[in-house]
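Milestone M4 deliverable, item 7.
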Amino acid sequence: MHWCVNRPGKSIPGQKPKSINQNDALKELERIPPGTGTDYFIGFINEKEETIQFLRYAPDNWLIDIPILENGRMTHSHQKELKYSEVKQVVTDFFKGASQRIFGQLFEIK
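Output delivered:
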């Protein structure tokens, strides 16, 4: 699994993601400051090149963003606000091999 992030003190661009393990990924979620809008984010990319990204609006109010690619280009994304417990579960499931597509169905993202 790889990751990208933009937060105070750390920037890893999506074009040059770095490897990360599940425990460190869950710790890094906590380091995203709340209430920052789109300035700060964290994203994870699996071996299938699927991506899930998160913004943190408040301690228990997050936005999941799931970019959808067609022919290697992003055509749109699915978004939904989640509680932190849901974010941790999504990240855990993603590390265990769940496809990004299942999250759209799980949370009824349109």
